[in-house]
Design brief:
heterodimer, A: mainly alpha, two-stranded antiparallel ribbon, globular, B: about 160 residues, mainly beta, six-stranded antiparallel beta sheet, about 35% strand, disordered C terminus
Chain lengths: ~130, ~160
């Protein structure tokens, strides 16, 4: 049986609590990993490993956090993502909510895409596909 | 500088697990300051001992080709102090290993009794990611370090499949 969204969220919350050393109450659906929960780059890898173990899924490199798109200078002009870059990122991250970011796609605002909800959406899609 | 915090490997199973021991002794200068009259091995050095045990395990798994850097201490819990005269044993197990990184789980024993846990993440710093101001040679796995594995027939350049 596929886990309910709430079950997935609760497990993701435990993963993030353990990986980032934050309190459970701090982990809300809309919390951003970097700004709200203090995640650093290596924590993203830690989160990936913990999710794989917790949900018995395999997360290929760049699928949850597509760093190849995020760090590609070709997709950036000045301090903004280009239309091509944004399209690539959208395609690479169907699990993220772009409604806010697409209005003002500044590179500095990218962390807003990485919320707890983004992870829950991703895990849900993986579990459904399994 | 010799920065080696394990004395000897007692078990080494390539790509799986390794155990090393460390004898704590008052000949170690720092113990006289940590603390005066009450020598205690700093917990950070217990973590370092596990990082060296697990780091060699991870490095050997890929033929010491990459620089293996301790990237994150996932968990470090100790229930007791280690003091001069104690023997620590670091048991490290590879939980996962891929191109990006390795996760290890570790258990620390003191004189045979459970003393704590140290779980770590190592990242593989390959040539492409190495900043230009960093030495090109593999400064992580010096010969002196790899010599610790000589009793298991492991040397730099040994094919890892020879001693799995």
């Amino acid at each position: 049986m596929v886990a309910s969204r709430n079950e997935v969220f609760e497990k993701v919350r435990v993963v993030l609590t353990d990986a980032l050393g934050v309190d459970e109450e701090e982990v809300r659906a809309e919390s951003t990993l970097q700004r709200d929960l203090g995640a650093e780059s290596i924590d993203f890898l830690d989160i990936v490993f913990r999710l794989e173990r917790e949900f018995s899924i395999k997360i290929p490199k760049g699928e949850l956090f597509p760093d190849d798109v995020l760090n590609n200078p070709d997709y950036v002009s000045g301090e903004r993502m280009t239309a091509t870059g944004l399209a690539k990122l959208r395609a690479a991250m169907p699990h993220a909510d772009f409604s806010k970011f697409e209005k003002d796609p500044r590179v500095s605002e990218m962390p807003e895409l990485f919320t707890v909800n983004t992870i829950v959406n991703y895990v849900e899609s993986k579990l459904k596909a399994a | 500088m010799r920065w080696i915090w394990i004395d000897r490997f007692v078990e080494f199973v390539s790509r799986e697990r390794a155990s090393a021991v460390k004898n704590v002794t008052l000949a170690e200068d720092h113990l006289h300051d940590h603390f005066p009259g009450y020598p205690v091995m700093p917990a950070s050095l217990v973590i370092e001992g596990m990082a060296q045990t697990a780091g060699l395990l991870v490095g050997e798994a890929r033929g010491f080709a990459e620089k293996v850097i301790l990237a994150k201490i996932r968990r470090a819990e100790f229930t007791e102090h280690a003091v001069p005269g104690d023997q620590l044993r670091y048991d490290a197990v590879i939980e996962s290993l891929d191109d990006r990184a390795a996760v290890t789980f570790g258990t620390v024993y003191k004189n045979g009794a459970l003393m704590g846990y140290v779980d770590l993440i190592f990242s593989h710093l390959d040539k492409a990611e190495t900043p230009p101001d960093m030495p090109r040679e593999n400064f992580v796995f010096t010969d002196q370090f790899i010599d610790l594995l000589a009793p298991f027939g492991i040397r730099r350049g040994t094919r890892t499949s020879d001693h799995g």
